[in-house]
């Protein structure tokens, strides 16, 4: 089996707010942080349901003139999108690319991921690539997804999904307690992602700072909460273990770090082209080892990697 990689040479006292529970067990997820320097996170609570009175207005069907106007506006937007994609292909920044896909609802620029040659002393695990040895996942209805609704308790704080905890950690670290607390109003994982983007923009947090946090802390944070998700929910744990030793791939076009940066159709074709080769992953999930992850289509598929490692750990615990 071949380990295919794009090889590149490796180059290698803030005040804490009062009143938050300390995330003690996160020390193992982020071992480089001591107890004083380790971040603490705010709890995300389900907002109270406030009843709003109906205004009593009934829906009115659009007239033929309005339909023509809507059609004209739709055509104009379509033309603008095509022109925007054309311009992006000619003017995209270095290290950015447009993923190949048959249909794209919006103009999408993605970071091009690279793979560094692995040192020989790193323990790895090899997964043969065949269509039957792959499980794809994406979206809020799939139990493997970070945006799958699922109650998770971390240090006595309750979160509505993996995404809730992840975004709370990001906001707390980059913006602070008060802004992170504003996520309380966002009940669904999708709302949390949108709210986080708005709050980061309002705080003038640059994409560079977000990327730096992602490279340094995101893997430890995600591994920590994914482990909690499957240890606390027996049914989900059983479903994860039922995937056996198959490769778990997040086929999502909008992310080349945690996913593949490509659609399901594109990734399935990629798998077919690489049959009888293998994906070789570092056994230990750390931020340092991300650079050694092989590419799956256009992306690192880091969430898939984390899920497979958590699966191995749960299986070992079950057989102990």
UniProtKB/TrEMBL annotation:
Highest taxon, organism lineage: Eukaryota
Domain NADAR: 140-315
Ranges of Low complexity composition bias in the record: 48-61
Residue ranges, compositional bias (Polar residues): 76-90
InterPro entries, per database record: NADAR (IPR012816), YbiA-like_sf (IPR037238)
Region (Disordered): 1-95
Protein name: NADAR domain-containing protein
Organism: Caenorhabditis nigoni
Gene that encodes the chain: Cni-F44E2.8
